[in-house]
Write a structure and sequence with these properties.
This protein has about 675 residues and is an alpha+beta fold. The chain has three domains: about 170 residues, Immunoglobulins (Immunoglobulin-like); about 270 residues, no CATH class; about 200 residues, no CATH class. It contains nine helices and 28 strands. The longest helix has 13 residues. The chain is elongated. The protein starts with a strand and ends with a strand.
Length: about 675
């Protein structure tokens, strides 16, 4: 049985101590109160925003999904994905994991050493078999959870170790303007894959075709996880880099150029960058992200957060194809750890658009409505379940609003990103999505619970303007202001703030139900004529989170008659200073009799039954206060909903006040009702 957050609070509040005595009367003819409620304080917000920064997360923040462990190897997916793992090292770079604990220049490994001959098996087990070393989390578990068992990694067969024919720097310095920084004056120009595969083929023959993908694990680090931490975060300038971090040729600079900024230490920069391949250093936790590219052909959705003019990130911490691939204990500056159990160890789930592209959910799993259809049918209300689990009965995996109708489909005015870093870029979006984030499973390391609202493209494409990037998910930020959080502290003690383009600027992007949450409960897209609502929040007996969500057209032309009634069915006798009044709202609309087929899949007539009401309350009387927990409520035709009001009396006895509650139909604001309630203590 589902229970709203408010229904959970009230029984608890009813057990608290009495503070005083007063009575409530609904009009002059009211009877004596009947029920007793004991309250010592007005309940807090029904859905408070609780943002936790990635830097502050630990493995204690992981919350398993109730009833199933998707990492269990005995669970067989519908589509089995088989991989080979080929491990290689270099004359100048042994496997980090074979070194004594904390002994290398970067402070790794974090565990006792593994013998070189055991390295391939160690990493195959690390990525595929739940254990204490990987905290029970595997790449198979991630994909099984996202796909609900449709796709999983069933084989990761180890090969090697092999010694590469060239030193590590010969491969790692072949990118980002680094080619001329070699110790011997040669020009770095080699890609790693041909040499890895040649060694493997010489040992085992041409068996590459037996696998769906090859994971090439190489000794050392991905530059993406060390360029900043062992560059500008560690050294005051490129001239302050000590010899042990520099080029082994003392006549060469101790720094090299790198992808996002001017310099990093030579030791960090000579490492190989990932470059969208399934080629991973020992610190890399982004294998799931690379499989997203390889197995499903989804592109990156991320920006360059360091280049000016700054461009806001697309989906940030909420999607694995953006910087959500960096989610995990300790935050993005802990991606240098070997083995990779920090930083990118627990990537975010996939957003609704990407799960549908991958075939993990279907049209039947979501409710899809037409923007033009909303004009004639009126608003739609539906319940959506947290994306980490199967939808609870009577709910959906997501809510989609298609931007259909006359061209251009997206009517958002273009705003030059050169002048506004928060610009969406070219207005070529095809649909809105609403989904629910709950911090369980792989979403445990998302920064908040709540409702994720986003614009999406059917096809990938760049977003135009300076420093444009591939962007197909654009999260609507409920709190678009600068999050104003320190990124890191320089060696001289100076604080460096996160840029406006940092993906963690979206940590507080989720919408929340109710008043005083710290976030927003509605969003209006004026140019596209849409109004989105976060109406209520519930948790079931397994603590699974669902939200009641709504959307309406601001250009509605429905002829449907709207009406409702307010009443106070019970006038309780309250023996304390804080009292609860429940006002009943009954929807007496004309039943929907239009054409529901103007909408798309998953939107039958029952989701067109509701209206949404905006609630306000005031009290007249010195020292009295009235509190609403939610400014919105919803009810279907012929249905009733109770609106809780909390009234606080002054300390003095014998005073009186009048509480007035008003409700207005969002569909037809001319339909407005009020009820007055006389109170005294």
């Amino acid at each position: 049985m589902k229970r709203s957050v408010l229904s959970l609070l009230l029984p608890l509040a009813a057990t608290l101590l009495l503070l005083g005595a007063w009575t409530i009367a609904a009009g002059p003819q009211s009877k004596k109160p009947q029920a007793k409620v004991r309250l010592t304080a007005v309940p807090g917000p029904v859905d408070p925003q609780q943002v936790q920064d990635q830097d502050d997360m630990t493995w204690d923040d992981y919350k398993p999904i109730p009833g199933i462990n998707w990492a269990d190897p005995s669970l067989k997916p519908e589509r089995e994905f088989k991989m080979a793992l080929v491990a290689v090292d270099f004359s100048d770079q042994p496997f980090v994991i074979t070194q004594p604990k904390h002994s290398d220049l970067f402070g790794n490994p974090q565990i006792d050493p593994v013998k070189r001959e055991d390295v391939p098996r160690f990493y195959a087990d690390f990525w595929l078999k739940p254990s204490g070393v990987n905290y029970g989390q595997t790449i198979n578990g991630y994909w099984m959870e996202q796909s609900r068992g449709k796709f999983g990694i069933t084989l990761l067969e180890p090969f090697g170790p092999y010694r590469m024919p060239r030193p590590h720097w010969a491969y790692g310095l072949n990118e980002h303007r680094q080619n001329d920084q070699t110790p011997d004056g040669s020009r770095a120009r080699y890609r790693m894959e041909p040499d890895v595969d040649s060694l493997w083929r010489a040992d085992k023959g041409d068996i590459k075709g037996n696998y769906d993908a090859i994971l090439r694990i190489y000794a050392g680090y991905d530059e993406t996880g060390v360029w900043q931490e062992f560059g500008e975060m560690k050294f005051l300038s490129k001239d302050h880099i000590p010899a042990e971090w520099g080029n082994p040729n003392p006549d060469m600079p101790r720094w090299v150029p790198t992808r996002y900024v001017e310099w990093t230490s030579w030791k960090a920069g000579q490492m190989q960058w990932g470059l969208s391949s399934i080629r991973q250093g020992e610190n890399s936790g982004t294998i799931t992200h690379e499989l997203g590219h390889f197995a499903f052909r989804i592109g990156d959705n991320n920006n360059n957060p360091y280049i000016q003019p700054y461009r806001r990130v697309g989906s940030g911490p909420w999607d694995m194809m953006d910087r959500g691939s960096f989610n995990g204990p300790g935050g993005p500056h802990m991606r240098w750890v070997v083995p990779p159990t920090q930083g990118a160890a627990m990537p975010a789930g996939l957003m609704l658009r990407n799960r549908m592209v991958n075939g993990f959910i279907t049209d039947e799993d979501v409710i899809t409505v037409s923007r033009t259809g909303l004009v004639s049918t009126g608003l739609v209300v539906a319940r959506v379940t947290a994306r980490a689990v199967e939808p609870v009965p009577g709910s959906f995996a997501g809510f989609i609003v298609r931007l259909d109708g006359d061209l251009p489909h997206d009517r958002t005015p273009f705003e030059d990103p050169a002048n506004n870093p928060l610009s969406q870029g070219d207005p070529t979006w095809n649909f809105y999505s609403m989904e629910v984030i709950q911090r369980i499973g792989y979403d445990s390391f998302c920064p908040d619970n709540g409702v994720l609202l986003a614009k999406n493209k059917d096809r990938e494409g760049r977003n135009g303007g300076p420093n444009q990037f591939n962007c197909f998910n654009w999260v609507i930020d409920a709190n678009p202001g600068d999050i104003n959080v320190v990124d890191y502290i320089r060696p001289d003690g100076k604080k460096v703030m996160r840029t406006v383009a940092d993906y963690r600027q979206l940590n507080d992007a989720l919408f929340h139900a109710g008043l005083n949450s710290g976030s927003e409960f509605e969003y209006i897209d004026g140019p596209n004529g849409l109004h989105f609502y976060i109406l209520d929040i519930e948790r079931d007996e397994k603590d699974i989170l669902t939200y009641v969500l709504g959307v309406r057209s601001t250009e509605e032309k429905s002829a449907r008659q709207r009406n409702f009634n307010l009443s106070v069915p019970k006038v309780p006798k309250l023996k304390e200073r804080i009292g609860l009044i429940e006002v009943s709202l009954t929807n007496s609309d004309q039943a929907f009799n239009g054409d529901a087929q103007v909408h798309k899949a998953g939107s039958p007539e029952q989701y067109l039954s509701n209206d949404i009401y905006r609630i306000s309350a005031e009290v007249s009387g010195e020292g009295w206060e009235v509190t609403l927990l939610n400014a919105l409520c919803t009810a279907g035709t012929g249905k009733q909903v109770n609106i809780p009001l909390y009234v606080t009396a002054p300390q003095t006895k014998g005073s009186k006040a009048t509480v007035t509650l008003s409700a207005v139909s969002e569909s037809n604001p001319s339909v407005k009702k009020t009820v007055t309630i006389e109170v005294r203590n």
